[in-house]
Amino acid sequence: MKLFQYDNFPQVTGSRVSLRQILETDIKDLIEISFYDAIRAETVQQAAEMQSKINQDYLDGNSIHWGIVDNANHNIVGTCGYYRGLDKGEGELGCVLLSQYYGQGYMTEGMSLAIDFGLHTLGLKRIWAATGQQNGPAIKLLERLNFVKTADLNDDEIEYELQK
């Protein structure tokens, strides 16, 4: 089921960061944060294969996965997107930041853009996220973005939901 169709992959521009499609030239810089089905890439080839699957998921209307880019220098600093639930008018929001950019506000800004896109462009009725109970930085990020804890999940994970 295709829920959204765009002639061009949607780019979202903010004052400090932008969300854009991940390019083939980005992949070598994203190996440490390249995942698909909770499996981490260990080589450029694996990361490229994962990105190909992610691109197909987008074309199928199942997810949207952006690179987060610093507008000042055009460096890719992380990724975020919606990975499940779009067929129900909902979205599980996820994100990963390259370690050298921790604590600099990039993810707060990138996720804010993604939330706005989810609510106002995709028309999502519910946005949620899951993280490990020990992932303090992710929990603080979600709380900063107006998410509240809604459930304890299996495997020591917790679920948060955006409060509009």
UniProtKB/TrEMBL annotation:
The keyword Acyltransferase belongs to this UniProt entry's keyword annotation: yes
Gene3D superfamilies per UniProt: 3.40.630.30
GO MF terms held by the record: protein-N-terminal-alanine acetyltransferase activity
PROSITE patterns in alphabetical order: GNAT (PS51186)
Alphabetized SUPFAM superfamilies for the sequence: Acyl-CoA N-acyltransferases (Nat) (SSF55729)
EC primary class: transferase
Ranges of residues in domain N-acetyltransferase: 17-164
Keywords, alphabetical: Acyltransferase, Transferase
KW tRNA-binding (keyword) present: no
InterPro entries hit by this protein: Acyl_CoA_acyltransferase (IPR016181), GNAT_dom (IPR000182), N-acetyltransferase (IPR051531)
UniProt-listed Pfam families: Acetyltransf_3
Enzyme Commission number(s) from the entry: 2.3.1.267
PANTHER family associated with the record: GNAT FAMILY, PUTATIVE (AFU_ORTHOLOGUE AFUA_3G00765)-RELATED-RELATED (PTHR43792), RIBOSOMAL-PROTEIN-ALANINE ACETYLTRANSFERASE (PTHR43792:SF9)
Name recorded for this polypeptide: Ribosomal-protein-alanine N-acetyltransferase
